[in-house]
Amino acid sequence: MRTKSVVPRLRAKKRLFKRVKGSVGGRRRLLRTAKESIIRAGVYARRDRRRKKRDFRRLWIVRINAAVRERGMRYSQFIAGLEKIGAELDRRTLAEMAVIDRAGFDAVVDSVRKAMGLPEPAAVA
User: Fold this and answer.
1) Mean pLDDT of the chain
2) Which of 29, 38, 50, 89 is 20 to 30 Å from the Cα of 78, by its Cα?
3) CA distances (Å), 13 to each of 4, 34, 57, in order?
4) Full domain range(s) for residue 79
5) What is the mean pLDDT of residues 5-23?
6) HSE of 122 in the Cβ direction (CA atoms, 13 Å)?
7) Nearest alpha carbon to residue 58 among 34, 75, 36, 82
8) Residue 20 DSSP label
9) Is 17 among the domain residues?
10) What is the DSSP letter of 89?
């Protein structure tokens, strides 16, 4: 007697269609198109998981740069000064401090300024 793979095949299709839930048109209803869209979505997801790390680092650098320039320094000077004083603050923490804890960030900038031997910025009126 011939065996049929009906149940496993239906189970696999059900699993596949569950993954394309939220898609529109043939991507949700047609088997071949649904498979293609799952593969493509997986490729984009993998790429963007790696891309997210890059994007956040760029955002943190922009925020730190803006905050440091308000205090009369350049980003490159600030990072070099951090290394000189041996501070183990990463860019994520520094960006958070620049936005939320301004007093703490001012203290870090002042310690970097002293370590680098830079003059105090002129008071902005």
Assistant:
1) 92
2) 50
3) 15, 10, 40
4) 59-116
5) 93
6) 2
7) 75
8) T
9) no
10) -
State the total domains in the chain: 1
Could you please report the per-residue DSSP string of 37-73?
Answer: HHHHHHHHHHHHHHHHHHHHHHHHHHHHHHHHHHTT-
The yes-or-no verdict on residue 123 having pLDDT over 90 is: no
Write out pLDDT tens, residues 75-107. 999 999 999 999 899 999 999 999 999 999 999
Q: Is residue 42 part of a domain?
A: no
What is the tens place of the pLDDT at every residue in 103-120?
A: 999 999 999 999 988 888
CA atoms within 13 A on the CB side of 105: 24
The domain that holds 107 is classified in CATH as: 1.10.1900.20
Predicted confidence band at 124 (pLDDT cuts at 50, 70, 90)? low
CA distances from 50 to 5, 43, 84 (A): 39, 11, 31
Residue at 46 is within a domain? no
| CA 33 centroid distance within chain | 31
**Does residue 71 have a pLDDT over 50?**
yes
Distance CA 69, CA 94 (A): 14
